Amino acid sequence: xxxxxxxxxxxxxxxxxxxxxxxxxxxxxGLCIEYCPKQILEYSEDYNEKGFHYPVVKAGMxxxxxxxxxxxxxxxxxxxxxxxxx
Length: 86
Ligand code: SF4
Ligand code: SF4
Prior knowledge:
By secondary structure, the chain is an alpha+beta fold. The chain has a single domain, classed as 2-Layer Sandwich (Alpha-Beta Plaits), CATH 3.30.70. The protein is built from two helices and four strands. It has helices spanning about 30-35, 70-75; strands at about 15-20, 40-45, 55, 80-85. Strands 1-4 form a two-stranded antiparallel sheet. Strands 2-3 form a two-stranded antiparallel ribbon. The longest helix is centred in the middle third of the chain and has 5 residues, at about 30-35. It is elongated and about 50 Å long. The relative contact order is 0.31. One iron/sulfur cluster binds near residues 27, 54, 75 and 79. One iron/sulfur cluster binds near residues 27, 32, 54, 75 and 80.
């Protein structure tokens, strides 16, 4: 199947985000890691003070966040969000 490229594609720019994790709030449920559409998150090696691994951005993927805010929406503990980079 051939998928047509939209003619006005150049008009649209994919936004960039900077991921911020409030590690102490995290309970290691893994939702943000599982559902990030860019798959840029993984568990930390470290533990937070509650004894959980928290999400970190994978090495080399620091510029891959597309500011979709899905992690922010899905996190039950308000422990992760993204800030738009201009
Ligand atoms: S804002 Fe979107 S792309 Fe960025 S880390 Fe969250 S879910 Fe992934
Ligand atoms: S969704 Fe929230 S609580 Fe769950 S692993 Fe991600 S940051 Fe931690």
